[in-house]
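Students often ask why inverse folding is considered easier than folding. One informal answer: many sequences map to the same fold, so there is more than one right answer. In these notes we will look at a single instance of the problem. The structure comes first.
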């Protein structure tokens, strides 16, 4: 076994453990209590909602990692196929503090709403939440109003919103069904009111009970908030599926024969992103075994690796229809950035992949041209990151590295074809921006367990601080504390190293999930299918390119 493979397998074992924490929700005690009440968990509800044998691409499963809140942020979000329609699904986890929303819950749902908007997806909310986590209300109340705004705007865009209410949906949470296009309430389970009996008693002196104030039957017969009254949770899910079946949803353009990623792709019962391949679609499997992806990333990210070895294990292989798996563009120019055309599950894609880490002026200009070409042909782009950033130094500054880097970032910023990003190794400095990092709104961004992202590498950042401190001491005529400097550099290096790790970034929702490299092809295929729900059209113009 290679050193690289052994290191990656160790990281993947840890990743499985981290995903298991998210899947566990509130833990065995609270799951058992929930089941004892005759209720399904969030993930069980999702599994029953989805078409049999179809996939569920979970988004942000490690949200809140490293914070004081339970990993997963008390909500499960992702994309799944319901009655042949790709839908954004959001499910409160009532085993975690009754499904109460904390600051990370809000951010996670914001991200899910963005995915639904950009990709023209219906939204299905599986509701059971006690509302806001009151101790953190100051971090939730003001930004949280966007949750309801997003629902109403989705409806205005004709992106259907469906709420299946299984339990509590109180206070502000009552507006989730209130602002959804379709609502299904479970008899004896759903409780939807702005203020519960204790609050009503305090505010008005009125005596009331849960059912008369906000029960499912009352809302179905009296208030009209419930469109459908379900007998139990299974019935609510059945009704939800029938609602989707009647939406008359069709993709605006179908670039391949596949309508969605439903056939033949399934997800493991363990959560996370281990997803098997689609054996039924008409495309050639990769020419090289995806298992080999575990051998490619060096344990020391300063060592380069050839991204062509990644590409050949991710894209469709050689076939009579497809020809070569990867048609490289400008292979002899700007060689530390690999660009070219391929197909992935039969869908066309343009690829930009860092080869040697550093981006020079030639690479930036090459990338700019390639992005423009992709926009002319309405071809989605895939960015594979392993970059330490743009090159620095007198010769490079005089050669125009700033304006050329700006040109590349301009192209990325104004490109309107869908972008997908995968951070394989390093993604430092402005290289992260030029390669379509999170700040540049890729449709989806995933990281490998080997990924690291920061303003610069730990040693470089610590070294810069040391140089600045040394210069300050010299300017004051003071002796420099070499022992203190060594301690400072070690502390900074450790801090930056820890803050650059994929779990930290994923916990802050700077990606859509940390994935096993071997799943990259299938995850990207799902994403490419999802983006076809909205028209794919390249930019008609870019910002000013400085000559």
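Output (designed amino acids):
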């Amino acid at each position: 076994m290679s050193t690289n493979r052994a290191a990656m397998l160790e990281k993947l074992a840890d990743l499985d453990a981290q995903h298991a924490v998210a899947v566990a929700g509130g833990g065995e005690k609270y799951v058992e209590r929930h089941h004892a009440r005759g209720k399904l968990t969030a993930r069980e509800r999702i599994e029953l909602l989805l078409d049999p044998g179809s996939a569920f691409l979970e988004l942000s499963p490690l949200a809140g990692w490293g914070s004081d809140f339970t990993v997963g942020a008390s909500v499960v979000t992702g994309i799944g196929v319901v009655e042949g329609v790709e839908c954004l699904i959001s499910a409160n986890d009532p085993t975690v503090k009754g499904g109460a929303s904390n600051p990370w819950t809000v951010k996670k749902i914001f991200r899910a709403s963005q995915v639904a908007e950009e990709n023209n997806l219906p939204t299905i909310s599986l509701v059971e939440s006690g509302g806001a986590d009151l101790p953190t209300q100051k971090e939730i109340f003001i930004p949280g109003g966007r949750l309801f705004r997003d629902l109403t705007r989705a409806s205005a865009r004709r992106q259907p919103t469906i709420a299946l209410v299984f339990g509590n949906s109180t206070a502000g949470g009552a507006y989730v069904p209130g602002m959804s296009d379709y609502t299904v309430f479970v008899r004896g389970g759903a409780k939807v009111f702005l203020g519960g009996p204790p609050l009503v008693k305090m505010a008005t002196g009125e005596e009331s009970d849960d059912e008369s104030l906000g029960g499912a039957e009352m809302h179905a017969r009296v208030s009209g908030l419930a469109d459908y009254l379900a007998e139990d949770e299974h019935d609510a899910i059945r009704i939800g599926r029938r609602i989707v079946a009647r939406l008359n949803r069709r993709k605006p353009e179908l670039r391949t024969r596949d309508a969605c990623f439903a056939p033949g792709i399934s997800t493991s019962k363990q959560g996370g992103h281990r997803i098997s391949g689609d054996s039924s679609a008409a495309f050639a499997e990769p020419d090289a075994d995806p298992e080999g992806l575990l051998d490619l990333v060096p344990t020391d990210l300063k060592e380069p690796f050839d991204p062509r070895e990644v590409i050949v294990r991710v894209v469709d292989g050689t076939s009579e229809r497809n020809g070569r798996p990867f048609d490289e563009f400008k292979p002899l120019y700007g060689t530390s950035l690999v660009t070219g055309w391929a197909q992935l599950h039969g869908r066309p894609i343009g690829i930009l992949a860092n080869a040697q880490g550093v981006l020079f002026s030639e690479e930036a200009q090459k990338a700019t041209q390639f992005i423009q070409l992709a926009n002319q042909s309405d071809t989605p782009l895939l960015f594979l990151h392993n970059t330490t950033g743009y090159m620095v130094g007198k010769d490079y500054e005089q050669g125009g590295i700033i304006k050329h880097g700006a040109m590349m970032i301009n192209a990325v910023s104004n490109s309107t074809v869908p972008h997908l990003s995968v951070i394989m190794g390093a993604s430092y400095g402005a290289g992260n921006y030029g390669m379509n990092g999170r700040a540049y709104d890729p449709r989806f961004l995933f990281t490998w367990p080997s990924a690291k992202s920061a303003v610069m590498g730990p040693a470089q950042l610590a070294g810069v601080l040391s140089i600045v401190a040394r210069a300050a001491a010299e300017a004051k005529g003071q002796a420099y504390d070499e022992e203190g400097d060594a301690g400072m550099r070690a502390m900074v290096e450790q801090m930056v190293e820890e803050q650059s790790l994929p779990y930290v970034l994923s916990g802050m929702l700077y990606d859509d999930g940390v994935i096993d490299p071997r799943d990259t092809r299938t995850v990207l295929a799902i994403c490419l299918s999802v983006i076809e729900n909205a028209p794919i059209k390249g930019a008609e113009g870019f910002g000013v390119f400085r000559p």
